[in-house]
Design brief:
Pfam family, one: Aldedh
Family: Belongs to the aldehyde dehydrogenase family.
Bound molecules: nicotinamide-adenine-dinucleotide
CATH architecture of the largest domain: 3-Layer(aba) Sandwich
Oligomer: single chain
GO molecular function: oxidoreductase activity, acting on the aldehyde or oxo group of donors, NAD or NADP as acceptor
Keywords: Oxidoreductase
InterPro entries: Ald_DH/histidinol_DH, Ald_DH_C, Ald_DH_CS_CYS, Ald_DH_CS_GLU, Ald_DH_N, Aldehyde_DH_dom
Structural class: alpha/beta
CATH topology of the largest domain: Aldehyde Dehydrogenase, Chain A, domain 1
Amino acid sequence: MTTYDLYIGGRDVPPGSGQYFDTVEPFSGNAWARIARGTAQDADTAVRAAHAAFEHKDWRDITATRRGAILRRFADLIVAHADRLGQIEQRDNGKLIAEVSGQVRGVAEWFHYYAGLADKDGGRVIPINKPGVFNYIRHEPLGVVVAITPWNSPLALTAWKLAPALAAGNTVVVKPSEFTSASLIELARLGTEAGLPAGVLNVVTGFGAEIGDALVRHPLTRKVAFTGGEAGGRAVNIAAAEGFKSVTLELGGKSPNIILADADLDQAIKGAVSGIFGASGQTCMAGSRLLVHDSCHDAVVAGLVEVLKSARIGDPSDFETQIGPIATRPQWEKILGYVEIAKAEGAVLEYGGYAPEGPQYGCGQFVVPAIFTGVSNDMRIAQEEVFGPVLSVIRFSDDEEALRIANDTRFGLAAAVWTRSLERAMHFVDRLQAGTVWVNNYRSTSFTTTFGGYKDSGLGREGGPDAMREFQQDKSVWITG
Ligand code: NAD
C-alpha cells in the first residue's frame, strides 16, 4: 500500500503524530493508500514554511513574468502526468475515468490562464487634485493562503484557488479532504519539479476539525479559500473572522433548473439529466430542483425516466460507465436517508432511489438515480442539499410562479432556464438570485469566467480575470516632489 506523508518545504515530512489513516476506493471498498494524519503541530510547521518562502528572495523578488513561467511549466507537467493523476483521483473518489481524465487536463488550463495574467496586473494610477502630487495603487500579495478543499473534485477545486493565489505571488498551504488527499500530494511534487521554490506550495493532510482549524487560526495565515459544506464553511468563516483574515467560501446549492413551456424539450431533458446526475449528483452546481411547466411536466418526466433506464451504472474505471459509485460511505448513507425523507414527506418516487445489488456494483456503494415528482418547494427534499443523484420535480403554471419557487431557497449558486424566447430568458436572467445563470445549457464552466454563490452559497468569486484580486491587498502610494 502506498504511504503519503505531508508535503512541507518541498519534501515529504512524516506527521508529528506518527499516525496515518486509510484512503478507500469507493468502488471496491478496499483501502489503497495510507495518508498522514496531520495535527496542529504540523499546521504550524507548514504555515511557517509557507511564510518563510513568502519572505524569501527566491519568491518575493522574482518578476511576475518569471512566476508565470513557473506556472506554465507546472501546467505542462500536469498534462504530462494527467493519466496517472486521473487514475489516483478516480481511485480515491470513484469519479468516472472518462470524466476525470478530461478534468485533470482542465486543471492545467487554470495554471496556463493565471500564468498569463501574472504579469498583466497593472494596479491603477489615481488622479489627485493637487499639482505635484502623484498617487498610485499597487496590488500586492497577501502572504500565506490556506486552501481547504472537498472530496468531489479534489484537483480541480484546488486549482481554482492555487493558480490565482500563486500567480499573485502568495504562498499556499493546501488541506485537501480527508477522503481524497493523494492526488494533491502528487500535485505538490510536480510543483517543485516545475520550479516552485521550497515552501511556496505545501500540502498537509488530516481532518478538518484538527489540522484544518489550526491552519485557519494560525496567526501567519492571511487568507482562507474554502470549498465545502455549510458546517465547515461556517466554522472556517468564524475562525477566520477572529483573526481578521479574508475568506472566499464556495459552499453548497439547491439550484433550480427551469423548463418553460416553449423549451426544446429534447435538449432540456438532456440538460436536466447531466445537470443533476453528472458525477452521481455530487456537484455543488447540481440542478437538484427541476421546475417544469404544467403543460410539459408529464412529457419531461417520461423522457427523464427513459434516459435513466438505459444509463450504464458500474465500475468507474470502465470508459463506458455513465454512473459511478458514491464517493464516501457517510455520503451514500445520507443520500439513501434523503430518499426515505422525501417519501415520508409525500413526494412520489418515479424512478430509482435504491442501492443496486450484484457483483458489477463492487462493494455496493451506489444509488440508482432517483426522480421524485409531486414535490412542493417547502419539503426538505427541495430545500436541503442532498449532494447525490436525487432529482425533485416541481410543477409551475406561469413564469412568475417559476421565479418565486426558484428564488425560494437560502442557496444561490446556480440556475438555468430553458426557453426559445430570448425576451423571457432575459427576464429570468434579470430576476434569478444566483451567481451563475445558464440559458439553454447546464453546467457550463470555464477558468475564463467567474463562479461563486449568492446568499448562503458563498462569499467571493473564483475563476476569471478578477480572481487574482481575491488574493491581493492594495497599497496606496503617495509621491510628491
Ligand atoms: P466539508 O465541508 O465536509 O469538507 C470540506 C473541507 O473542509 C475538507 O477538507 C474538510 O476536512 C475541511 N473542514 C471541515 N471542517 C473544517 C473546520 N472546522 N475547519 C477547517 N476545515 C474544515 O465538505 P465535503 O463534504 O468535503 O464537500 C461537499 C460540500 O462541498 C457540499 O456541500 C458541496 O456543495 C460543497 N462544494 C461546493 C463547491 C462550490 O464551488 N460552491 C464545489 C464543490 C463542493
